[in-house]
Task: structure prediction
Amino acid sequence: MPIEVKDSRVENMVNPLGIDSLQPRFSWKLDSGESGQKQTAYRVLAASSRERLERETGDMWDSGKVESEQSVHVEYQGKRLESGQVCYWMVMVWDKAGNASGWSGEAYFSMGLLEREQWKGRWIGERRTGERHLMPCPYFRKSFSLNKPVRRAMLYATAFGLYETHLNGRRVGEQYFAPGWTDYHTRVHYQTYDVTRLLGEGDNAIGVVLGSGWYCGQVGMMNRNTYGVSPSFLLQLNVEYEDGTCGSVVSDESWTMNSGPIEYACFLEGERYDARLEWDGWALPGFNDGGWRKADLFEPYEGKLEAMPEPPVTVTEKMMPADIRRTGRGTYIVDMGQNMVGWLRIRAEGPAGSEITIVHAEMLNPDGTLYTDNLRLAAQRDIYVLKGEEENWFEPHFTFHGFRYAEIAGYPGELKAESIIGCVVHSATPRTGRFETSDPMINRLYGNIVWGQRGNFLSVPTDCPQRDERLGWTGDAQIFIRTASYNMDVSNFFVKYMKDIADAQQPSGAFPDVAPDAGWVEFKKRDHLKWMAPDNAGWGDAGVIIPWTVYLMYGDQRILETHYEAMKKWVDYLLATSKGLLRPDHANYGDWLSINADTPKDVLATAYFAYSALLFSRISGIVGHTENEAIYADLFERIKQAFVQGYLDRQSGIIKGDTQTVYVLALYFRLLPDEWAPVAARRLEALIQSNGNRLSTGFLGVGYLLPALSENGLNDLAYTLLHQDTFPSWLYSVKHGATTIWERWDGWTEERGFQDAGMNSFNHYSLGSVGEWLFRYAAGIDADPRQPGFKHTLIRPRTGGRLTFVRAEFESAYGTWESRWEIRNGVVELTVRVPVNTTATVYVPSGKAEVPAEAVELVREGNDRRFLLGSGCYSFRYEWI
Ligand code: BGC
Result:
C-alpha cells in the first residue's frame, strides 16, 4: 500500500473557521502498510477556490516539492491571507523510496476579521448602573432581508458576558459560554460560524441573548462585575451572494431589546427560567417587536479583539441517571452515577406557574440529603417555571454545575429516568489517550483522572467546578498539564491559557497564581490576605512549565517564541528577589494539602526556581538565543550549589524539611551532585516506608513522586504507592466509590467523615497528576525533548506491582503510539506501535530477549538494552525480572 496522507489540520484544528494567524501551520498524519516508512518530501497546494484546487492550481501557495520529513507545524508561506478569505488546501508526500502519495483529501480554513476597521458594527447591549446581581438576561433582535441568493454567510461574534445567537429561530453553533474567559480588560476572543444554511433569500431575523458569565457575573469567591457591569456584544454577519456581491448585517442602534424568560443566570447561583415570559418567534422574521426598546450603544473596545484559538465548550456526552429516589419530603434525589460537570436537561408538563427547583451536589450526607457544605456561596440551583402547556424540555443557558446528585423539588407528576438527561460540558479537547491495566482499581483511578480533566477544562483549566471558586489556578494547571496532554489534545487549550497567564503577569515579572486575573491580585492586597506573597513557587512557574510542556508534547515552538520575554522576566524576577540564590521563606501555598509533612517554603521555592532556570536555558537554545542558553544553564548550576550549600546536611544526607517532597523535587529537578542522589533516594524510601508505605505529598510533590522513584531505582516502591488503598493514597478514594479525583487526600475519611468544608472539592485534578506516570512509566510512552511532539519516542515500560498487563494508546500529532505489555509465564510480551514518519527507541532489560528483526541495537544505557525502530507494529519478548 502506498503512503497515504490523512487527518490534515491547520493550527491543530480540522477545517477551522475564522483563524487570525497570518502564518498558519499545517499538519498531517501518514499511513502505510510498510514498516519503517517515513516522509522524505512534501508539497502543499493552497488555493482561493475549490475549483482551482481541483485543477491543482495553488494560486495562494504552492510550496513546490520540499525535501523534508516535517509533517507537523509546516508554516504557510504563500500570498498574504486576507480577512474572511477561505483557503482550500491539500498536501502530497514522498516516502522513503521516493514514491509519491496521492493528494490528501481537500481541507480548508477561513480567516477571521483581521483589522479593526473591518468590524463595521457597534458594541450594543444593556446599559446597567451600579453593581446589581442576578439580573434578567437581555434579548436582542433584528429583522433584515436579503434580496439575492446567498452563496456563503459567515457570522463573527463576541461579547462582554456570554452570548447565544439565533438565526431564523435556530440556535447558531453548538458552543456554550462563548466568547470564553479572557482578561476582558486586555483581550476578548471572537467566534466564527458558517451560517449559510440558516439563511435564505428574503426575510430573515437574527437574535442574541446575553448572560453575565465571567464578565459581570459572580466569579470565584472574590468578585461580581469583575470586568464591567453591563453585558454587550459585537456581531457581524458577512453575506456573499451568488452574483459575487457582498453585504453585512451588524450589531448597531437598529436592534431592539427586551427582557425574556431567563430571569437570571449566574455560574455559581444557577439559572431561573420562567417559560411564561417566553417570546414566541422572537428570532423569526415577522415578529412584532413593537414593545421592545432600542439596544444601548457602547464605546468601541480598545483592547485586543482576536480569534478564539482554543476548542469551544460543548456538550460532549449525554448521560441517563443511574438512580432516582423519592424522599420523605416529596422531592427526588437523582444520582447520575458519575460526578460530572454540566447540567440536567429535564422534561416536564404541568400547570402554569409550577416551579421545579434543582439543586446540585457532589456527595450525599449520611442521612441521604445533599452534601452542600463544600459549595460555599455557590447555590448551584436551577429553577424552571412552567407555562402550562404541553410537555417541554428545560435546560439552563448560562450556568454549569459540578454534581453527581441533584435534588428536584416541585416536579409535577412522577419523575422518570427518561425525563432526565445529564449533559456533560467542557472544552471539546479531542481524546487522545487510552489506558488500561489488569487491575480494575487502577482503571477506575485512570477514569477518575480523565473525569477530573473533563470537569475542569472549561475555557480555562479551573481548580474545581462546584464551589464559589472555579478559577484558573496556575499551580494546578502546571502539575497536571503533562497528564492532560496524554489524555486529550490540549495544545490549543494551553496556547490560549498561556496568553491568560502572560496577560496576568505583574509588571515586576511575577507570574500569577490565578489566570485570567479575576481580581485575585487586588484581593490579595486586602488586610486579611496581606501576608500572601506576590509570587508563588509552583504556581508562577506555570508560566515556564506550560509552554515547555506544550513544546515537548506537541512540538509547538511558536508558544516558546511568543512568550520568550515573559518567561525571561519571570526567571529574572526570581533571581532579583532571591538572596544568595535561595528563595525567601515567604508566605505561599507551599506543598499545598500535603499530609503532616510541611515542606519548608524556601526549599520548595528554590527547587522550583532552579527548575524554571533550567527549562528557560533549554528554551533559549531551542529558539536560538544561545547566549541566554549558556547564561541560564550557569544560573541553574549556581542555584544547585546554593541549594546543596543551604539545605543539604552533608553529614546525614538530610535535606532541610526532611519531607518526601523535598527529596522528590531534589531528585526530579536534579539538584544534587551525583553522589548525593542515591542518598536522597534512600531517605525518600525510608520516609515512605516509615509512613506505612504511604505518601504524604501535596499538590506539588505528588506530580513527581512516582517518576522520582522509578528514575532512582525504586520502581517497586512506586508500584507499592500506586496500589496502596489505605489513607492517604490514590486508591483510598477509589475504594470509597470516588468517580473523580478529590481535592484532598482526606476529603472524606472513614474515621472523620467529610473534612474542612471550606476547602473540600470532590472534583479537583491536581492529585490526578499521577496519570503522567501511568503513561510515561507504567506504559513507558515518553516524549524525547530532542525531537519533541513524539517525532522520536522513548518506549520504556516499567513492569511492576500486581499488574499483569498494561495497554496504552496515545494519539500524537504524528499518529497513534501504542505500548502494550503482558506477563505470561515469567515472560514479558511487549507490543509497540510506531506511527509513520516517526522513530522509537525501545528499552528492554538486559538478559534474554527476542527482538524484531527490524530493530537496530544501540549502545546500552545502564542496564537496559536499547533498540531503534521505524514505523510499524512490533513484538518483543523478554524475561520478567
Ligand atoms: C484552590 C487550589 C489552588 C489553591 C492555592 C485553592 O483554593 O482550590 O486548587 O491551587 O487555592 O493554594
Remarks:
- The mean pLDDT is 96.
- Residues 778 and 798 are 5 Å apart (CA to CA).
- Residues 463-464, 469, 473, 475-476, 589, 592, 764 surround beta-D-glucopyranose (CB under 6 Å).
